Amino acid sequence: MFMLRLQSRQLQRSAALSNRQLFSTRTALFNSNKPKNSDELVPSEPSSTAPLVGPDAKGYVPKLSYERVSYEYPPPPKKPKFVPAESKPWKRHIPALAAVLGIAWAMYAYKYFLSGEKTSDEKLLKPDHFTPFKITYKEDITEDLQLIELSPNYEQFRTMLKSKDNSLWNGKKLWSVEVKQPEIQVVRRYTPLPMYYMQGLDGKALLRLLGGKEEDEGRMVLLVKKYNDGEVSRWLHRMPVGSTVELRGPFVGHRFPYSPIDKTAPMRQTMEDLPSRMSVEPEGVSEALNVPEPENIVFFAGGTGIAPILQSLFSKNPPRGHVDVHYSVANRNEIPFKRFLLFLEKTGRAKFHYHIDNENSFLTAKDISAPGSMQYLGYRNEKLSKELEEEKKLAQMMEQIRKERSGETVESSTPQEVKHEIIDFEATKQAEAVSEAKSSAPEPATAKAPVKYRSVLEQAAAWAKQPQRPASLAIVCGPPGYVDYVSGKRDLSGRGPVAGLLGQKGWDTTNVHRME
Ligand SMILES: Cc1cc2nc3c(=O)[nH]c(=O)nc-3n(C[C@H](O)[C@H](O)[C@H](O)COP(=O)(O)OP(=O)(O)OC[C@H]3O[C@@H](n4cnc5c(N)ncnc54)[C@H](O)[C@@H]3O)c2cc1C
């Protein structure tokens, strides 16, 4: 009890002491702002505590919000999000894609480097694109007739040689090129010949046949007749050696019909510059191989119209059958390539019949024989098939009109049905011929007749004495008037019934081909 009273008295005493201390601190604070004497300057600005204790002092008013200044460290940079590999599924196809690309590359490389198949850039000529050639030689045959040698540039020549089968020349088709006249932007067709010029021993230029030597490939010769009002022929005649001429092609004007002998027998030897370079030809090949004889051909040429048949006779794979050429010219000076025409005759490749206007030896009906029958009917002759189709359609239309007029019920087949019938007819003919050829065709094409002659000249002389089968194909080529005279006017499609000299002798659209 006594202890409790003592503690309370001590507490009262310490409370009184702290009140007195607080009062003296306050008084000291108030007094510290007062000047110590009257001479002392009083600071003009109010003291920091004055507004707190002055008469106008406002109480503490807490702000509703305040900005807290923080000195914390910024957060660490964000880590890239982890993406598992499986989330890009296309990546899984990369190996397969690489394999496909690898195979494609291997196929291209094989085609380009090993198989020797031509890409379009390796071809010397393109039908849709003009290729520049240089005029490397010119020879005047007459004032109006010129031979023009054209040569490809070095790059063209090199790319062409990359391909195994670099030759344009194939005797089974007759083709031409388009020459551009750049000043007036017009084109005209000309028939290239597989020939070139070389320097002879006497220093003079010597015309030769392309003999398969690589360095001569790509060269060609044009036989160009100048017409006084002709745009392109006059331009070609005045272009000097060294100038550039642009060509495109080849454009095939005629394809000789397929014959089984072309498949089974070795290719016929190409014509050479000198008959002594040619070897005796095997005889009796068709009988030995048991295939139909090759077709014999008769060719009618007026002026420069001689070029297509010469192209074929001078090319690789020339026609195998006997070739008769009826050649009409204004006078003897206009006959080009006389030496070569003589070689063709001497080697039995062709027989020339000249018809010279100023010697009054015109071509007449008595120079022409009736057509012989085709040796092989199964060939794919698009022209024949088209003509048959048109004839049959016409016959059906006539029949339909006749029935309509006479009041009969009309049962006509649709054009498609007509077409099918014709195709079937053609297919049957082909199938028959193919099976016939197959059943009789021997295994290898090694037929060789015993050699009876010492030279090709001796052999050709013997052939000339033998009677020939009449020709089963006629080709006409020359100026429009000449073509009309020999074979009748062509219609707008370039066909039309065969008339003229050939028509008189029984030739028709199935065995006559007319070229411009
Ligand atoms: C597939 C084919 C191959 C050809 N091959 C050759 C060839 O190897 N060599 C060759 O010289 N020509 C050839 N020609 C003809 C040649 O294409 C031109 O028609 C000929 O050179 C005339 O052309 P141009 O521009 O000089 O005359 P254009 O300006 O076409 O004609 C002007 C005038 O020339 C005369 N003329 C034109 N052409 C003949 C003609 N054929 N016969 C008679 N008068 C004519 C006419 O009076 C005509 O009005 C071929 C034609 C074709 C369709």
From TrEMBL:
<protein>
    <submittedName>
        <fullName>Uncharacterized protein</fullName>
    </submittedName>
</protein>
